[in-house]
Design brief:
Two copies of one chain form a homodimer. Chain A folds into two domains: 139 residues, Carbonic anhydrase (Beta-carbonic Anhydrase, Chain A); 39 residues, no CATH class. Chain A starts with a helix and ends with a strand. In chain A, the strands form two sheets. Chain A has a five-stranded mixed sheet with strand order 2-1-3-6-7, with helices on one face. A two-stranded antiparallel ribbon of chain A has the order 4-5. In chain A, a hairpin with a 2-residue loop joins β4 and β5. The relative contact order of chain A is 0.16. Chain A is 30% helix and 18% strand. The longest helix of chain A is centred in the N-terminal third of the chain and has 15 residues. With 185 residues, chain A is an alpha/beta fold. Chain A is globular and about 50 Å long. Chains A and B meet through α1, α2, β2, α3 and α4 of A and α1, α2, β2, α3 and α4 of B. Chains A, B: Its cofactor is Zn(2+). Chains A, B: It holds the Pfam family Pro_CA. Chains A, B: This is Carbonic anhydrase. Chains A, B: InterPro entries: Carbonic_anhydrase, Carbonic_anhydrase_sf.
């Protein structure tokens, strides 16, 4: 048995025991917007943006990047479920700033196990076996957060399946303060 | 100005005002696991699975599908940030069960604006212009939730960049009760 699984199921039981009116929430987001943000464990978009269940779509991946899959999700969000305003929210101290495609391809070629990191960068545990597959993936790493937010907002706005009148706001979440800082320009 | 933006920023200000110890959370998830789930507005994974800030990675897209981008995120989650146990959580009454690739391609070819739905299916507003681009995307729709969970768990487990010893649990979240129901087999 898994300790984590037991903990998740116990927390879920407590949540479901006090579910109340949430059983009747409709499928389309009540407040008509969507947030694209990072999977980072320190981020809780419902808390940092004030969302209750039923309010908004939340899309999350490594970096909060405007990947093809994030755009798939955003287009479904607008076209079928009516969201009309979107937020792209990256954050300070993001793991995506700590490596490059080349580093990740090299690490994975040596071992699939978790690597270690120090001031000189990422190091493999040497636990092997690895796979060459990592060299064929674009990991969507980030070298500058403001630039990645601007680039992702531009990619979304310029996508042929995105209507020109949907506002797309760019923000950086500060992990030290909990604050959202707008990225302009 | 945007009313939604004002509301999000006001909620964020309140959250940041009581940020406390969260400023010191490290980047790697404290409880060492990751959840892949749907972007659906009714789902709050932090609440339904009992997560505090810092606990776990949360990856979300339309359907909670094991897309290439979700796998990119999961591999980063394990290889660089040490998660060792993953959950794939789809849900009842999912929007991804209401259409097919053909329906979405056809709807988008007529208009990018939000479609309407009734018992006979999706209908366009006729507000044009549309785009043919939607026909070139795999929307990863779902015809059977248990089957999609099993398929996504199998895709993740079989991926060449995923170590064989990472447990991947499959669940369906019930939107009427808030309960997680395990998908076995």
């Amino acid at each position: 048995m898994s300790k984590i699984k037991d903990e998740v199921l116990a927390a879920n039981e407590a949540y479901a025991a006090d579910f109340g009116d949430k059983a009747n929430l409709p499928m389309p987001p009540g407040r008509g917007f969507a947030i694209l943000t990072c999977m980072d464990a320190r981020l809780d978009p419902a808390k940092y943006a004030g969302l209750a269940e039923g309010d908004a779509h939340v899309i999350r991946n490594a970096g909060g990047r405007a990947s093809d899959d994030a755009i798939r999700s955003l287009v479904i969000s607008h076209k079928l479920l009516g969201t009309n305003e979107w937020f792209v929210i990256h954050h300070t101290d993001c793991g995506m700033e700590t490596f490059t495609n080349e580093v990740m391809g090299e690490l994975l070629s040596k071992s699939l196990d978790t690597a270690t990191v120090d001031d000189s960068g990422w190091h493999d545990t040497g636990a092997g076996p690895g796979s060459e597959e990592g060299r064929y993936i674009n990991w969507l790493t980030i070298s500058d957060q403001a630039k990645s937010v601007r680039g992702d907002v531009a990619r979304i706005k310029g996508h042929p399946l995105v209507p020109k009148d949907i506002p797309v706001h760019g923000y950086i979440y500060d992990c030290k303060t909990g604050k959202l800082v707008e990225v302009t320009g």
